Amino acid sequence: MFSDWPSELVPQQGWGDEAAISAFKDAVPWSVGRDFVAGTAKHLASSLGLTKPGPPIRSKIIHDKQLQVLMPALGYGLSFPLSEIDILRDCVSVYCEWLSALLPNPKSSVPAPILSDPNHYARIVINHFYYLFVPRGAQGPDVINRQAVLCHRVLRTLQNIAQNSPCLSEDTWQTLLLFLLHINSALLSPPTVKEDAGEQLCERVLSVLFETWLLACARCFPPPPLWNALRESCQRWRHRAGLIDQWNRINFALTGKLISFMYGPSFPEIKFSEDDLNIIPSTMSRDCIAQVWYRILHIIGNPVDLSRHTVISKTPAFLKYAISSELVIEPSQHPCLQMLPSIFLSAMKGVSGLVDAFLGVPNISLENLNQKGHHLSSSSSLSLSSEGRGEDSTRLLASGRAKCNSILHLFGPWLFEAALINCNMQASVGSQHKTDASGTAGSGSRRPVSGFGGESSRKSSDSSVPSEPQNDRLANLSPQHFQGGRAEALGALCRIFCSKKTGEEILPVYLARFYLALHQGLRQTDAIVTAHQEQASFTSNKYQGSKIGTCSETAASILVNGVDLFRLDLQGVVSLVPSVLGVLEGVLPEAEVHAPPHLPVPLLRRAATHVLLSILPLPLHFQGLQVKEVGCSSGERVVLSHLRPQLVNLLSNALQVETDPANTQMLLGGLLFCVQDAALCEVMDSISQHNFSADRDHNIMSSGASDTVSSHGDYNSLLDDSCETLPVGDSLGPVGSSGLSSTTSASHATLLSATDTDGPPSFEDPDSAHALFVRAIYLVCHRLISSWKSDVNVSLAGLELLSGLARLSIAEQDGLECKRAVKWLCDYIAYQCSRPARLHSKDLHSTIVAAFHCASVWLVAHPYLLHDKECLGTILEVIELGISGSKSQVKSSDAPRLKHEKELKPASMRVRDSAEALLSCVLSQVGTFPSVCGAESLSSLLDELTLLRHCNTCDVSDQLTRDAAVQHFRYFVAQNSIMLALLEQPLGNHQDPQPTVTALIRGPFGRVAWTLQLRHLARHKSSAKLYTVNPGRPLPMNDVGIKHNVNPKYFPDSVERIPLCKADKSIPSLESVMMVDEKSATEHDKLLQILDHQIAFEDNIRRQVEREITDYPDVETECVALPLCHEFQTARLLLSHFGFLSLDSLQESVESAVPSLVALDCSMAGFAKDLELLDTTNNRTIDTGHVFYVRAGQTNPHEILSNVVSSSSVHPHFLEFLGGLGWSVNVHQHPGWTGHVSTAFTVTTLPQDAPFDVNHGGSGFSGRTHVLYWSDALSEMAFVVPSPAPAQPNNQPAAANSVNMGIIIERSDGSGGGSGSEKSDSLHSYEVEVDQGSSISSHTSQMSFGHGNENRNRKFGRQTSALSCGDHKVYIVWLESFEDSYTFPANDLLSETITGRESTSWKDKEACIYIIFIHALTNGLFRIKLQGQNAKLSMAGPLIDGQVVSRRVLGTLVRQTALNMCRRKRLESDSYQPPHVRRKLRIQEMVQKYRYEMTEPEFYSHLFTSPLC
Length: 1509
Fold this sequence. Notes:
It is built from 53 helices and 19 strands. The protein is an alpha/beta fold.
């Protein structure tokens, strides 16, 4: 920079007024001169008032000639040896007092000539002070301390004058600066030795030099010769560590000022200590700051020279020492040069800190830089810190930061040269590196980057044994000692390139150098690594062959600071994959890793895991791409697809040894991605082969397509039909006999040994989907039971992975492995439940609940598992354990305990509820999902209105309301949990006139409809023709037998011959009574007449019957069937047949205050409303995801919503991604969840004026007419794409707007109108229970329902909950520019994400928002960023923050992650209750409100009455 200017740094012999002092010294002998100087100095010092009390005495020196005599004597006294410390002290005191003439208030002891011309005499004094600082040779520490005290006093005085003097001339400033340069050269130029004054004064003299220099720049800018002198001097002092410390200090101070006015106050500031706050003068202009910053930055030359001891020692001082020393022959052999590695590291830390400052990394400070053993910038990756996972409280990098090219123009040459220290490369590489722009950081003399201290040093460093014994003193100084600074440079380069913004261009020359530097840095060639490998080999012999991984310092720095390298659109970055993979194999698969001491091993493994997750999709994405490894001289190329087995083995082996929870969860997410990606890739390949098999001419095109970068097919049908379709199978037998039984058994025999070693399992294709599926199941289940069971987050991540594997559709499905997976899940549940009571906690029970859910997913996806007796028994045992708390038969040899013998003591109510849900799933969903109603609904779509409209026996009108419909049904509640709605149809339909009853059964797990008929025979046993029109006459039987007419006898024949006794005669005869009483005779006559008439009638009838019998057969007589009975109480028959009408069932018991069967009064007001509320309480979990599309630079909510109006304004793959989230449903005809309570669980008429735009960009799924929907047997999720509301005509009423949006709002009162906000509030209060949990609290159960307006504000659930499960939001944001993730207006978009399930106070508190950012890379892959996972149960998978995924699995993984986020939120919530519990509580609440209070006789009588009576 100043090479064309002469240096003003004159030789030391010509400095300090040497001529005058030498004349004085030569004129008198030493003793005389000493006495004269001592007396003069003592006299002058005594008049200063420093040694004696009292004011200073006015000086008697009034002429310049007097000073011309005294000042050479005082200067001569400053050169005295340190043994004359008193004389030195007096001379220093006199000169320091005289220099006060430059201050505004000079001392009174200052001579008058000095006061008249202070600058002239000040220059003389400053020149004389030089002799005080000249080293006196080897002295004791006490003597050197005395010299240091005097030197400190002089420096304080000069610094005070420089800061406060108002009259310093330009010559005085230059003299002062030259003085500081000369004393620094005198102290610091010689090689460092022990007990040296330069070592003690180094920090002080350098700080005064730089601080005074900055003052001079602000007041009297130094000329170029002085700058050249400073540069040359600093280059001679580079063997001093204090110089680099002061250089870093001044650079940081100047950079802080420079950044403040270049980028504004919003840019992150550099933190300074209190001593450095005012180091930069406030009067320094911006242009001056920029000039000084650039000059100071280059003042030490090329900092990479610090790694070359031959360059550093090429100074006159080192040469002089080598000539005078007997031990040191070459200047480069001085022992002080052993400090160069630490000095080089300090310099590289300073440069790295400046890079971070320009990148806008927050909280950069010099103290933090010096405290860390190795600088790990916070800009590397937020996920590397376990405390801040997923939190974005502060920006990592400033949005207005400089471009990568600009920073590389400043620091690139230094960093590249430092990164390539001791790298043996071809000459072309070195020559290419030399070609750099002029005026950059390396504008000095260029040296080859492959050199280390010159050719001779390279030769000596390459040889293992030194050639000469004189080199023993520097035998330990080798290129490997400079790896710390090299690693720092590599880390800074990685941070620069990782700061690349979306769409930013980086010069190809910089990319080429960067890749070359990374390739060299990733090579494990350090001597430290070699030593670790030797130690690892010794340890492996000791511990039976266990390996210990190693990672060099440079490789560790690249991993930690370059986690985003493969997540950016860096051109040609895939060429680094082979090099990076070699380093990952030394870090991830080994249980113990020898890492640099300053770097924690979990942090290093986390960085390696991030890099691995970024590389995983590359082999299948770039299947035919051939990569030439950087630095490879041969023409060999690596096909990326061939690296996939190595990646898979690395991933599985890392999972086996990983102990850090965060790292384990990341690896689990990567494992699930691998399996799903492989499965979908195989399906695509099979589809492609099927499509092209008919035409052989397409084979060339298909083979050529395999070599392309990525395929661009439509994955919508593939995602829906292939990824998560349920497999079809009847039993384990066909699966085992499909030709894979032998292979499966052999693979499982070797699976344990294969997964415990480096080699893959013994499959034909170890990275196929089937092989990965089997390997993942075994590995995860084994680790889940052995070592992950104690960590709740890892356990949940493992269970989520198993749930994802269960939904996969793989061609070669292995039933045995699926059975083992379910068995392992049951064992895991049993172990967790059997843990001691002191270990039971909410987190433990959360893992059990998640395990039950995972088991349900496996059974629904693989229903053939229940055909296996052993598997079914295991499932039922663990269900029994969850419900009752113990198994009825612990061992097979134990006698089973019956249900009534066990104590009902589950682990917790949450565990019991989960076990009940699994039991219901086994009984009702496994093998039947999806039902005939479709996946949209587990319950029957029939209700009271529908049944009555299709009932022939009930005459209903088209305007039938729900209130009127329920009056036709009888309502009962059995077991206080199942509601029966019975519609009595005595004869059913006319085709099958049987006693019929239609039952709507509403239970905790849904609603079903059954029609039951009373039959005496089963259908298959009845005749085929039940009703014949003319059965025909039966034929008479001729042999009718003999008919005997016998008269019955009522008394024996001898009854008349029995004599009467007195007792018989005690009763008077009838004749005697009639003779006495005339009235009795009259009545007797009437009785006789009646008897005669009856006898005649009976005789007539007898004769008629005899005549008919006698005349048989008669042609006019026919056999006629009896008339049908129309009086049936079918509801009574049904309840009776099921045993509900016993007296015990109608009475209260000790266990329950509610009888087993309770009748409900459906005529009470509000019953139909509560019944509808029960039907809208879903029996599955419901969640909602809102999808947004953000174009580059957008922060306005309205602009973001408008992006999805047209397909031309969104990414070409965005609509395809939406199709992967779910399938499109019409909200008006969809019976499931639609994203809003107003349209959910109801089927309404379609509005006539609601067209569907086929060219939309996602707005068609805004919820007005359509949404994206996905469901399984346990969960529902709707994906809504909010968009601006369509413009409405001015004459259209507000109520019509709601209809056009597909939202049907029922008004809470008879009055119309009301604002939209009022309608929204009514919706919230009506459906707030859907996912909050529902319980019968004391204040809600006592409210009367249906009387007045008390019902409108009726609330359910635990109102004391701090945060409802419906208050969290899941955003899925597609980003065109990744930097927009930091400015996304999440809170401003909350108004567009209202679902009606929010609590009443959700707006008053900070909403819990989970965001999944998706950024499409130019290579066809997608970068994921997760935000908001700061809860206790964080990091819901399978997506990981920073992961890169392929297009095939993007929609599936995003949906699974969103579902898992919501599930973990429910696990964490204290107020959440499962859906079946909420439905059960709804039924119990209706029992309390609408129960008939009847006695047993009244209940029986009620059964015989009509429902409408």
